[in-house]
């Protein structure tokens, strides 16, 4: 863990430098408590390389901001036991949102990552203008924000995932083939409809957010992973050495548009044979059911379709099982190519792919074993998401709440004016 210094060295340091150092040290304490668990002030000071007076001051400010609280006396301490300091789970809230082909979703979590609000609405986003889709999302956001307001707070950030290429700096969806969007300023549209809120409003690729949700903090097996997130389209996310990797301009992880079958079907992006044309939910439904089958009708929601596929597979329906095996084979072909290129520790099948995982996992593993050059598949293993279809929106909420750990001053102090305090 990086250590902070008690004072600022160098002549001519102004108030801005002092405040920057203060924020950095506040963040250091927050990270220390999240990653290392509750501890006394003395233990925190020793672990973080700060003196006790500084830590006491920092903890005092974090308590004023409602981000930490005192717990029980420290066990096993020599001499007079110190009081444990721990994160206050109810001290801050983050909101995730998602725009996908068939639905919009919102979800709020507290500082401890506990879900405090969740709303979902089925929407045929391809049949609406971007403005109409954003309006539908804002309707859900108002409900989620009201749930947070009932707890006496507002979020530190709202992070919205969209199924497409996202320019995060501009808050713009550059290209979303399955939505039919191009250069849509989603962040600006949300800010306007939310009356220019004080909290942060950001937009990201939904599969990248799903990857954040799957990267369990502190789990060494999840420090180098790829997430293949599937619904109608297929996206991906990369976690390298415990951190999201988004590429030079933020467009990394578009696994669904790897060309795997040059003689295959035309993709929504305009090319032929993209991976999502053979493993996306649309392809599975086409292979598993006739056009008149209720499974392909507009009445069923995503969860209902997936549940029905699983039900038919469990009942031994041959057509369903054959369709699942074919999808699994193609998932494995793409996963093998990704393994040869990136050699992750784990490839996590997320979204609908995780929900049907029990039927396709063996096929995926067989293709990876035969298609990867390195012995033993290079140590890469296949895992199924345990988060389900909410991975992307949970990732958005996680990114939103992470802003508090990077800058605790985003949460105001109760009844205390913000002044430039020293470290």
From TrEMBL:
TM stretches of this protein: none
Pfam families linked to this entry: HTH_IclR, ROK
Source superkingdom: Bacteria
Domain HTH iclR-type stretches: 37-69
InterPro entries: ATPase_NBD, ROK, Tscrpt_reg_IclR_N, WH-like_DNA-bd_sf, WH_DNA-bd_sf
Family according to the record: Belongs to the ROK (NagC/XylR) family.
Stated name of the protein: ROK family transcriptional regulator
Originating organism: Nocardioides euryhalodurans
